[in-house]
C-alpha cells in the first residue's frame, strides 16, 4: 500500500514574531514495516537556518530558525510512504510467554534485547505506580503468551476508557488519566506502556498517522485524517509488535509511523521557542491519501 501524507501546520500570531527556534519530528522514518520513498518540508516564510539530523532513537529531526519578523508561519511536509505491514505474518502466533520474556530481558545479551531494556524503565511522562500494576494484573494468566497479554490489555483500555478530546493536555499526569478513565490516543498509549513496564516488560510510544475512511457513500474530506499514537511491545524472537488501544486493533496497513521513543516527550512533533508578545493560534491539517 502506498500513501501520500500531507501534514500542514499553521501558526498565526496577533503580533510580529521577531525570532524563533524549532525542532520537528514530522517526517516519517523507514524501518521493517514501511519504506519512505520521499519526504520534503516547505517552510513559509523561508527559514534563515535549516538542518536535519537523526536523534538517539533514529527519528528524523528538522531544526530551523527564523530571524526576520513574521505574523504567520506554515510548515508543510509531503511524504510518500510504502506500507509493508506484517507482510503476511501473524504476530499473535508468537508463543513466548510474558514470564519467559522477563527472563530474556534480564539475561539475554543480544543487541535487540539490550536495546529493549531502556523501554522497561519509567520515563518522564510514564511513571510506574501501583494502579498500573493492578490494572494489568487481570491479564497475567500463568504462561500466557506475551502478545495475548498485550492484545487483551489493548482491548481492556479500549472498553474501559472513554475517548474524550480536550479532557487532557500534554501536562495531564498519568495518574489523572487512570483516575478518570478518559483521554485521547496519547493517554491510552501511555497507560498501556506504564502497565507493561510496571511488570518489567519493554514497551514504547509510537507517533504517526492513521488513514481514516469516510462513511459509505460519502467523499473523503481533505485534511480530515489525524496524527495518531499507539504503543509497541518487544517480543523476543520477533521484534516489536504494535497495538492501537484507541481503535482496538493491531496496526498493519493504515498506520504510518513518524517516530518512536519512550513516551511523548521523546517525539514531540513540533517543539521550540518563539520571541513575541502576541497571542498565537494553531491549525493542523493532515491528509493521508492512497496513491498505489
Automatic annotation (TrEMBL):
Residues 177-247 form the Transglutaminase-like domain. Gene3D superfamilies: 3.10.620.30. SUPFAM superfamilies: Cysteine proteinases (SSF54001). PANTHER family: BLR2979 PROTEIN, BLR5614 PROTEIN-RELATED. This is Transglutaminase domain-containing protein. It comes from Desulfurispirillum indicum (strain ATCC BAA-1389 / DSM 22839 / S5).
Amino acid at each position: 500500500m502506498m500513501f501520500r501524507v500531507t501534514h500542514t501546520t499553521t501558526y498565526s500570531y496577533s503580533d510580529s514574531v521577531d525570532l524563533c527556534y524549532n525542532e520537528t519530528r514530522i517526517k516519517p522514518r523507514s524501518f521493517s514495516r514501511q519504506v519512505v520513498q520521499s519526504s520534503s518540508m516547505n517552510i513559509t516564510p523561508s527559514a534563515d537556518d535549516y538542518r536535519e539530523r537523526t536523534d538517539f532513537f533514529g527519528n528524523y529531526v528538522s531544526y530551523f530558525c527564523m530571524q526576520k519578523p513574521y505574523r504567520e508561519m506554515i510548515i508543510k511536509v509531503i511524504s510518500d510512504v510504502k506500507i509493508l505491514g506484517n507482510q503476511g505474518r501473524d504476530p499473535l502466533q508468537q508463543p513466548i510467554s510474558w514470564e519467559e520474556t522477563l527472563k530474556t530481558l534480564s539475561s539475554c545479551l543480544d543487541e535487540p534485547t539490550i536495546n529493549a531494556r531502556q523501554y522497561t524503565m519509567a520515563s518522564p511522562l510514564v511513571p510506574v505506580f501501583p494502579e498500573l500494576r493492578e490494572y494489568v494484573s487481570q491479564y497475567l494468566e500463568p504462561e500466557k503468551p506475551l502478545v495475548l497479554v498485550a492484545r487483551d490489555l489493548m482491548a481492556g483500555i479500549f472498553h474501559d476508557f472513554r475517548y474524550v478530546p480536550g479532557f487532557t493536555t500534554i501536562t495531564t499526569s498519568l495518574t489523572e488519566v487512570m483516575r478518570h478513565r478518559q483521554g485521547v490516543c496519547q493517554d491510552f498509549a501511555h497507560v498501556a506502556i506504564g502497565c507493561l513496564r510496571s511488570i518489567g516488560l519493554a514497551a514504547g510510544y509510537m507517533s504517526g498517522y492513521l488513514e481514516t475512511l469516510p462513511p459509505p457513500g460519502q467523499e473523503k474530506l481533505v485534511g480530515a485524517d489525524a496524527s495518531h499514537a499507539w504503543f509497541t511491545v518487544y517480543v523476543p524472537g520477533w521484534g516489536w509488535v504494535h497495538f492501537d488501544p484507541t481503535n482496538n486493533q493491531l496496526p498493519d496497513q493504515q498506520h504510518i509511523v513518524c517516530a518512536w521513543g519512550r513516551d511523548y516527550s521523546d517525539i514531540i512533533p513540533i517543539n521550540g521557542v518563539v520571541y513575541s508578545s502576541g497571542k498565537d493560534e494553531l491549525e493542523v491539517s493532515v491528509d493521508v491519501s492512497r496513491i498505489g
